[in-house]
Amino acid sequence: MALMTGKQYIESLKALKPKVYIFGELIDDPTSHPILRPSINSVAMTYDLAHDPEYEDVMTATSHLTGEKINRFCHIHHSTEDLVKKIKMQRLLGQKTSSCFQRCVGMDAFNAIYSTTYEIDKKYGTEYHERFKKYLLMAQKNDWTVDGAMTDPKGDRGLSPSQQEDPDLFVHIEEIRQDGIVVSGAKAHQTGSINSHEHLIMPTQAMKEADKDYAVSFAVPTNAEGVFMIYGRQSCDTRKLEKDVDIDLGNNTFGGQEALVIFDHVFVPNERVFMCQEYEYSGMLVERFAGYHRQSYACKTGVGDVLIGAAALAADYNGAAKASHIKDKIIEMQHLNETMWACSLACSYEGTKTESGAYLINLLLANVCKQNVTRFPYEIARLAQDLAGGIMVTMPSEADLRGAETGKWVKKYLAGKVGMDVENRMRVLRLIENLCLGTAAVGYLTESMHGAGSPQAQRIMIARQGNLEAKKEMARKIAHIDTSKDNVTK
Is residue 316 included in any domain, yes or no? Predict the structure, then answer.
């Protein structure tokens, strides 16, 4: 089975029976929990669109391992065309769900580990790359959703992993056995982990020799012994628990989720281990994964498309759509959204082949892309709230709209432009609230800031990749500068 449907995906997740806690309680079935179900629906969309002939070109690919059609989320990029189709898929899914659809991290982990293991094997004669190809083949054949897990809790940021008072604050190797390894620790902020079949683990930063036990990459099933997850709270998430709720959710079908994933003395067999103390390559793996994932923030342009449309609709319902300043604000929102898209396209088209044959994006441009994403969605959201008006966060509830005593008053005083339906106005205002302040704001705003590394991480990479000395030399040549005349003590 190379291509599951959304229904088959949900059934496969139900069969796993992962260990998940929400609000301190162990839940029986994540697929039926009202808080989790919208995020599962978003992942299901990545499966269903792969069967739609209209979207087949971007949603599917041909496996370089088998020659069979597979979901693009399980694909290794082998051309700049692959890199571009990847982000076109991500923008499409952002438009379809207006939320995080949670498979990008696993896809980016696949690609980073694929090329890095090739280079580890070349130096050390290990067999990580062949192991990983076999694992990837299983992922493709089973059409797995995989949680690519990099971020550790980190503890005291002023200390290295091996200096922490509690060694479990970074995922680490506890024991190396003949048949595998035992690991402990946790991965934080794990997008879609509860909705995943597998966890694919990577180190969180470049390691030194003293930290070699933390230089580890491996894969385990979501229901492996010793693995469990604790759901991360989202703004307004308990609205999903209210009876007969619809309008107040803003988006009653799709959503995202994050969790703290804990590994408590977990055994990993050798065939699922892809790095074991090769600390010199931890930085390469982190850099490549981060580059791929910073490219992936093209998804925010798809969500931005929905928010821009919602803001324009709100202006229609408010009767203000023809005002010049309203039009100008919508133009600015579009300008910012397309600027992010242009950067994601640029880093894709400028991709190059690695030694493994897989293609890597242009790392400088990927970091420029993500640096813009840490800023522009916030301005788009600010303008959307400006256009929506304060009623977005102070209007009565859906229950009041339906209430026998209150309904007529809500309809009377929430009226906007003559002839426009009050309920429809409330729906679009709640959608804007959801994207700017509610559950979807986790993915559209906070994740834009901190996902794939917080802003300073990109600035460090821009400084490293920007080749400033070459630019200085260009200036010297144009200005006919004779450096022998400079008398500078270094």
Answer: yes
